[in-house]
Structure formats: structure tokens, C-alpha cells
Amino acid sequence: MNPQLDPYLYEQIANKIAILIEKKTFRPGEKVPSVRRLSLQEKVSISTVLQAYVLLEDRGLIEARPQSGYYVRLQRRSLPPEPAISSPSLSATSVNVSELVASIHDTIARRDIVPFGAATPSPELLPIRKLNRILAGIARDSDGEEHSYGIAQGSEELRHQIARRAVDFGCTFSGDDLVITFGCTEAINLCLRAVAQPGDTIAVESPTYYGFLQIIESLNMKALEIATHPRDGICLEALDSAITKNTVKACLFATNFNNPLGSCIPDAKKKQLVDLLARRQIPLIEDDIYGEIYFGTDRPKVCKAFDKHGLVMLCSSFSKSLSPAYRVGWSAPGRFKDEVRRLKLMNTLSCVLPTQITIAEMLRGGGYDHHMRRIRKAYASQVQNMAEAVGQYFPRGTRVTRPQGGFVLWVEMPPAVDSLELYRKALQSKISIAPGSLFSPKQQYRNCIRMNCAHPWSEKIHAAIATLGRFAHECAVL
Amino acid sequence: MNPQLDPYLYEQIANKIAILIEKKTFRPGEKVPSVRRLSLQEKVSISTVLQAYVLLEDRGLIEARPQSGYYVRLQRRSLPPEPAISSPSLSATSVNVSELVASIHDTIARRDIVPFGAATPSPELLPIRKLNRILAGIARDSDGEEHSYGIAQGSEELRHQIARRAVDFGCTFSGDDLVITFGCTEAINLCLRAVAQPGDTIAVESPTYYGFLQIIESLNMKALEIATHPRDGICLEALDSAITKNTVKACLFATNFNNPLGSCIPDAKKKQLVDLLARRQIPLIEDDIYGEIYFGTDRPKVCKAFDKHGLVMLCSSFSKSLSPAYRVGWSAPGRFKDEVRRLKLMNTLSCVLPTQITIAEMLRGGGYDHHMRRIRKAYASQVQNMAEAVGQYFPRGTRVTRPQGGFVLWVEMPPAVDSLELYRKALQSKISIAPGSLFSPKQQYRNCIRMNCAHPWSEKIHAAIATLGRFAHECAVL
Fold first, then answer.
1. Engineered SS bond to B326: which of B66, B184, B355, B377, CB 3.0-4.6 Å?
2. Based on the domain organization, do A105 and A147 belong to the same domain?
3. Are residues B268 and B376 in the same domain?
């Protein structure tokens, strides 16, 4: 097989080795085939094998030992294994998950419920006092200009502050490249409407954030699920094949710490993704809403950083990091900017001014960096605690993801467990979870749940996980 | 002709008499035919003629003199005559006016421009100090709950306050009947999407607010213009005929002080409109954004007040009365509430909390009534001043509307004047106007302009109207 013809060969090889590790053909601590041997065996170049092994390192499956070769990593004992790469259906689907989603969203306001359901940040990890002080100051001083309709594109100062910080994730924007929106939700709506029509097919990760499916549903578009790895995101080979066989109008992917898997596409793979889509002129709507909440040392880049053709429409918001209630999001829509701005004017005219200016002030010198350092640490530890507790209480055979950012965990239970049943049981005990079938237009993942880990660890949360585990055991037996 | 078969016969008769008044067959001060004589002449009932004469009274064309009959009213000398009822094209059209609209909207932020273009309220007539004080207080005290995603339907307290006040315009709501939105713009978007699909035909007034046309355009729907009278709004006969000949999926009308005409459908006619549409199960999306800014003694009712079948979807906002920058609007979508709430969740998730709570507080006891009394007087006087100045400076043959509420004026210039040409000339002299062709999907009304009268009368405004008048003369000669 000629690697020129199949640029994602290394991904196939990595998946092959991953399956062998999964099946314990290679056990933890054992050596995997040498680069040279695998190259001969698979009839591929040395560099392809090296790429495959780097990917397996990224996935946390193997580790390089100097002068010795690659070894299967020892898993931390307390954590259950990771889920495998997804294998979604290959045809596009009309979507309908909205009623269940609405009922989960409505639990947000209920203080009596343990909030593992909606992916809301913890109020204790929002800079509330700081934001309050800034907003109060702005409110006191607002004049007529600040009470008028703003321009559709949004506050100039806020756009400037976002552009200034975009260098951190590899982008060189001017404020004029951006459009401010009501949260990432409006940004994704406008981007989708700018590049696709009702009836068109949109490629999404599998599993994917149910909010994406809802938006696609509300716009009468179709969703096409693409196999996605829980560590390094969308499978390029599967994507390449899908866009060859289908007319895909746009892709909608969360590239960094996606919801629900927490997967993060390695930067080198991001570049390949951008190149792949550019060859076919398919726009990528890139959701980076969790990108700032990374647990490692470096902020991952975004696909937009590799975009030479204006085809990547980057979307994000401050709802996970600063305040969901302020509804401040934004988009860098590349070559589709004028269309997105036009749609913004028609959808909601312009954004709320006082909250935009408050966020701008927070970014300018209001302690944003200090705040982010604090919450990254907190979320990393909470996700770890939650994963360990799931390992402790859930039935044998349960798997959990290893998110390196964000604050949600994906839990794959044994096939006998029906997560809708678990959802109903849990809600009766005032525990909210998000059942897995929400995350697929074909309602796959019936034995999975997504858990929000945003809330600081407490005895109440610990006990709720124990209760969930007990219910999961009961469901598994039935 | 049997009046049973044609419930809007009285409107036809009123229009016939109006034309005779227009042509000076009946001059100001002269008596129009007696009720008895007209009844015999037109072979209609006495009550039909009486209804026609009440309508002509509402339009300000005739007045009743006790024991004597009906007479053509003496026009106030300083005002040019009113425009006639519109006669739009009878087929639906795809819409495309967005570029020009975006350029007009962008002038809002420019302080060097005399703002007759966009329909923005004057900052001097917004309760800025009061709102600032309330928002600052709310900001200081916000806790975690007020920084979380709110529920999609919006703040409960705000919905309660709106429901409490809805009695003033004839509606008995509970807070649960309402959905809070980002301005009236989002409300109308969601309502349209709840009841119609791309390709469907929406009936609109002619002329109609260009924002409606933009929304219809952005949703790939079609607009069908219905003849509209500058005083009493949509022509029921024309509407009846249009919905007989076309498959109309919904109507989108501004029933009180519509933009741009300032027409207000008399309450009795509102009931007929609701009944007409109910017979065919056609939803009415009712924009009441100017309803609170009435110049007379009584708040006009809304069509929603006569809605027995949940088919009227009332939409409004506080952007004209309190603060455009807060982006607080709402809808009472009747039987389509669940669908509108669902679409709200998908479009923007939920609304900004601090501004919602500020508006709620303003309505609860923050001096809303006092404020509204003040601005009603101010806008009434400014509209009158503007109309008089247009009469003074614009070419002979110019007509202006007689709005009884709101703050826009519709100016119909002689047919030779091209308002796009006037728009460009005016903008060079830093005066913004809204050219008439924006207000029709077929780009009729090329010789008309809409003028925003929201800004307090000043020498600068006076001089700008004189300049516009001069330009209009020049355009008329070319």
C-alpha cells in the first residue's frame, strides 16, 4: 500500500495496535513491535509507523523508553479502561432529541438536584465577585451610547481583546475578523446557516454534543456521524471516506476537549484535518468552547491556526470560563464573515452591551489569566476524582474517558445497562445525568452516560456517584 | 351584493369615499352622502355604511356633526396630505434588501450623522439613570444562581411582570404563557420558524418594516404584500382575497403604530382580523413593539386580546421604550409556545440574566409608568414637528402620514424623486434616512422615505430637514 495514496494509513495502524492492546495481546508493561519490524510487517515506511506510535502515545496507550523502544503503559489501577473508538452508522439522519434535552436543561435551575446532567460550570469556579464589580461600575457610568443598539458585529473593544488573546491558540486576528454572538450556540447557528441549507448534510463527531444535534435538527439539516477516538478525536480516515461517499456541506467538530468525550485532536492532526477539508472546499465549523480549560502545560492550538483558505469558522464563548448568564460568544468565520454578520443582524440584531464590555474588561486586565490557572487545576482534579469514583462504584466492564481538558466525563457501561432507565431512576433520587443516546442522531450509546464534573468534590457528589453505581448494577441485572 | 358574503364590504365603501375625498369630489368642510342615501346607492345595509363612516372617522378623513351628518374634515393647514392606501403586487417574492439595511444599521453608531435612518429611540428619552442604578445594584448582589445558564423560557420574575401589565392591552396571561427573547427580532424569528418552513409564503403589510423582510429572506421564506391603509392598517378585503388565492402560512403584521406607516388597526377591526384568520387557521405573528407609545388617551388593544384559538403569536420588546442595548424582548406564542421555547433553546439557549432582572425591576416599581407618560408626550410632539417641517421644505405633492403612536414618519414624495438617490446625497451631508424601497420586497415606494422622529427637536434637526427638502427638490427636477 502506497502511503502517498492513503495519508491516514498511520491512523489505521495505530488503531490496529490499539485493538491488540485492548485484547491484551500486548499487556501493560510489555513491549510492542519495534518500529522496524512493524514497518516490514505492514509494508509501510518507518515514518508512518513512527506517526502511528506518536498517536498511540497521545492516546496514553504506549510510552517510549529511551534506547529500548515502545511499551504498553501501565494503567492507573483505580481507573477503568477507556472506551474504544466509535463505529457509527454510515448514513445521514434527521435528528430528534429535543424533548429530552429540554427536560435536562430545565434541571439546571433546580438546586435540589445533583447536577451531573447539563454541562454547566460550577458557580464556585466562576469569577463572580470580580465580574459583579466590573459590571456594577459599567452600569453606573453607562451613557446614551451604551444604551443604544450596538452594531451587529459586536463591541469593538471586546473583539480587540479576543483578537489579542487569540495568538495563544495560534491565530492572528484583527478585531474586524470577529462577530460577537449570544453564546457559542448562536455562533454555531449562524455559521451553519451561512454555509448550508435545509436538507444539507453536516458531518459531526460520534458521539457529539446534543446541542449540535438540536441545532442541526432545528435547521432541518441532516447529521452524519464520523468515528471518533476518545483521546485524539475525529478519525481522519473515516472522515475522508465519508466525504467521498456523501455530499457533506460542512463539518461541525469540537476539536479541543470535545463534549462528551473530552478528546483533543493533536495539533499535527489538526493540520491534516484542515488540509483534507481544504482539498474538497468543505467548511469546518470548529467549536473551541473548552479549549482554554486544558489540564496540561500548553494551550492546544485550534484548526483555525492552520487555515489558509478562510474555510474554518472558529466558534467559542465565555460561558464555561466566566459566566453562562452573560451569553457572550464569538465567531471568527473566515471567508464567510459578511454572511455571518448579516445573519446576526437578522437573528438578534446585536448583542447586550453591558455584559460584552464587562467581559472585555475582564480580558484586558481583570485577572482573566489568574482565574483560568485556578479553574484549570480545579477541573483537572474534579474530573480525576469523578473517574476514580466511577471505577469504584460502577459495574465491572464500565469504561471511562481520560479527558485532558474541559469538565465532562463519558462513561460506557456494560451493554445491558439502559441509560434512559438509569436517567429516570436517578432523577427520582434527584440526580441528573445525560443519557448517551442524546449524543447520537441514531440514538446509539444507549449504555453510555455523560457526567458533568464541574462541581467541586464533596461528600454529596461522592454519595451520588455511589447511588448511580448501585442503580447501574440494578439496570445491568434486569 | 350580499354583505353576509363579503364581511369587508364596509372597507371597500370607505375606500371609495376616501378616493372621492382625495380627488376633491368632496372638499374639506363639505358634507358626504347621508348614510341612508349611500345605503340605497350602494345597495348595502345601513349598518355597513355606518361601519364605513366610522372607519373614515378613524382615518381622520371625515367627522360626525350631531344632528347633521358626516363632513369632510378640515386638514391642518401646515401638514401635507396623507398617502393613499397601498396597492402592492399580488404575488409573493423572495426578498433581498440586506446590504442596504446593514449600511443603514451601521450608521447608528456614528455620532456625526443626523439619525433619521434607523428607528432608534433617543437616548435622551430612555430612563438611563434609573436603569443604570438598578443594574448596578443587581450586579453587586448577583450570586451563583444569577451567573448560571437561565432556563430557556426566561426570568420568571420578568415574565410575571409582563403578564401583570398585559391586562392593559386586553390580555390575560400567566408568566408561563411567555418566552423571553433577545429583542423582538429573535421573537419574530422563532415564531416564524415555529409555524413556517423555507419556501412558505408569509403575508406582510405594504409597506412593511424592512427588518421583517430581512428575517423572511434569511429563513428562505417568501413575502406577500397586502394593501395597507396609512391610518387603520391592513386592508381586510385585500387580505381575504390574498389568502384565498395563495397558500399563506402565517401573517406578520405590526398592528399598533406599524413601522413605517404608523398605522393602527382599530380594535373592532382587530377582532375581525383575528376571526378572518381563525376561519382558515392561519397564525398571526403580531408585532406590538410600538404599542405602548400611543399619543391618544387609551392604550390600543392587541389582536391577541381577541384570540380564542391560540393562533396569535404576540411579540414585543423594551428596545423602543427602555433600552435597545439590553436586548430584552418577549413573545406570547399561544398554542405554539412549546415549539417557540424549544427553538429558543436551540437558537441562543437562554437570555442574559442581569438585564432581564433590571427590566423586571423597572416594571415592578421602577417608575415605568411615569417614564412612559413622559416619552409618549415627547414623541407625539416630535412627530408633529417633523411632519410640519416636511410640509414646509419638501416639494409640492409630498404626502406624510399621521401616526397616532410610535416615532416614525412615512413621507411620500412626488413620483420623480428617487429616494435611493436622495439617500446617497443625504449621507454625503451626514444625514441618514431610510429609502422607501427597503420596505417592499418588490422594491416599490421608490419615491418614499421613512424618517425617525425619536430625537428631540433641535435647530440641527430643523436644518437637516431643510437640507433634505432641498435635495428632494433637486432630485425631483432631474
1. B355
2. no
3. no
A149: nearest CB among B108, B136, B140? B108
Average pLDDT rounded to a whole number, residues B204-228: 95
Identify from A158, A347, A353 which residue to disrupt to test chain B contact, counting B C-beta atoms within 10 A and taking the largest count.
Answer: A347
The last residue of one of the domains, among B314, B338, B366, is: B366
- Using the CB atoms, write b or e for B293-310: b if 16+ within 10 Å: bbbeeebbbbbbbbbeeb
Interface residue A152 vs chain B (CB under 8 A): yes
Residue B362 shares a structural domain with residue B377: no
> Within 10 A of A338 (CB to CB), how many other CB atoms are there?
13
In a domain, A77, yes or no: no
* pLDDT digit string, tens, across residues A30-80: 899 999 999 999 999 999 999 999 888 888 889 888 888 999 988 655 688
- pLDDT tens-digit series, residues B4-34: 557 788 988 998 998 888 888 888 888 999 9
Whether residue B54 lies within 8 A of chain A, CB to CB, comes out as no
- Verify whether the Cβ–Cβ distance A135 to B131 is below 8 Å: no
What separation, in Å, do the N-terminal and C-terminal C-alpha atoms of chain A show? Answer: 48
Both A203 and A283 in a single domain? Answer: yes
Asked if the C-beta of A108 comes within 8 angstroms of chain B's C-beta atoms, the answer is yes
Nearest chain A CA: its distance from B320 CA (Å)? 10
> B343 at the A interface (CB within 8 A)?
yes
Distance between CA B191 and CA B196 in Å, rounded? 9
In what helix (H) or strand (E) does residue B227 lie, and over which residues does it extend? Answer: strand B222-229
Give SS3 for B251.
strand
The answer to whether residue B291 sits within a structural domain is: yes
pLDDT at A1 over 70: no
Name the strand (E) or helix (H) holding B363: helix B353-365
Q: Which of residues 155-194 of A touch B (CB under 8 A)?
A: 182-183, 185-186, 189, 193
**ipTM of this model?**
0.87
CA A459 from centroid of its chain's CA atoms: 28
Are residues A376 and A346 part of one domain?
A: no
Q: Give the one of B101, B142, B345 whose C-beta lies nearest to A102's C-beta.
A: B345
pLDDT tens column, B383-413: 999 999 999 999 999 999 999 999 999 999 9
Structural domains in chain A (count): 3
In a domain, B64, yes or no: yes
Residues of B in contact with A147 (CB under 8 A): 123, 126, 128, 131, 323-326
Q: Which of A123, A198, A355 sits opposite B144 (nearest CB)?
A: A123
Using the beta-carbon criterion (under 8 Å), do A120 and B149 form an inter-chain contact?
yes
Among candidate residues A385, A378, A408, A386, the one with its CA nearest the CA of residue A259 = A408
What's the mean pLDDT when you consider all of chain A?
A: 92
Looking at the fold, whether B461 and B396 belong to one and the same domain comes out as yes
- The pLDDT confidence band at residue A329, using thresholds 50, 70 and 90, is very high
- Is the Cβ pair B105, A197 closer than 8 Å? no
Residue B471 structural domain: 98-123+370-477
Residue that is last in its domain, among B366, B389, B406: B366
Could you give the strand order of the β-sheet that contains B312-317, starting from the edge strand earlier in sequence? B179-182, B328-332, B312-317, B284-287, B248-254, B201-206, B222-229, B233-234
DSSP, residue by residue, B161-191:
HHHHHGGGGT----GGG-EEEEHHHHHHHHH
Check CB contact under 8 Å for B324 and A144. Answer: no
As a residue count, chain B comes to 478
Report the gap between the CA of A417 and the closest CA in chain B (Å): 29
The sign one gets for the Cα dihedral A194, A198, A199, A202 is: positive
A331 and A273 co-located in one domain? yes
Q: What CATH number does residue B254 fall under? A: 3.40.640.10
- Residue B249 and residue B381 in one domain: no
| pTM for this prediction | 0.89
Q: What is the CATH number of the domain that holds B37?
A: 1.10.10.10
- Chain B residues closer than 8 Å to A215 by CB: 346
- Judging contacts by C-beta atoms under 8 Å, the chain B residues touching residue A341 are 102
Share of residues in chain A with pLDDT > 70 (%): 96
Residue A295 inside a domain? The answer is yes
Is A103 touching B (CB cutoff 8 A)?
Answer: no
